[in-house]
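Translate structure to sequence.
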């Protein structure tokens, strides 16, 4: 029964993922308006979360949760939480960053002690942010 439930959850999670379309549907924002201003990416500002659930062959259950907070001032942070429900364990990591909107992507620069700059394609459709084709639900504006 647990495996059947996990298969249903996994199927629904995958079905909710973006199909990688290049165009944005009506009511969506695709990329920015050009340049490197965050003004065109105001739809990205807010708190967004994505949770994936896993069921291993041995029956153990776990999840991976990622929450992004994009602030209007160009600051951001990412909270990653992994949980092993079977063992009753959890681990969390917060990373601070700066972000800016480009023509059709968001550039995120992670701040020390983390490092690296990454560009993610994005679009916003109502209360869903597609960041690198991964769907995140809006938690707060």
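Result:
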């Amino acid at each position: 029964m647990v495996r059947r439930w996990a298969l249903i959850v996994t199927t629904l999670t995958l079905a909710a993922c973006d199909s990688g379309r290049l165009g944005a549907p009506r009511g969506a924002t695709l990329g920015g308006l050009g340049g490197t201003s965050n003004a065109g990416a105001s739809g990205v500002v807010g708190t967004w979360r994505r949770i994936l659930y896993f069921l291993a062959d041995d029956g153990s259950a776990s999840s991976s949760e990622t929450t992004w907070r994009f602030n209007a001032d160009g600051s951001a942070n990412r909270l990653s939480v992994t949980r092993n429900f079977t063992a009753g364990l959890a681990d969390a990591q917060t990373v601070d960053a700066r972000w800016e909107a480009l023509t059709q992507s968001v550039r995120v620069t992670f701040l020390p002690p983390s490092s690296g700059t990454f560009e993610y394609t994005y679009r916003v459709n109502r209360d869903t942010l597609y960041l690198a084709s991964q769907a995140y639900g809006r938690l707060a504006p």
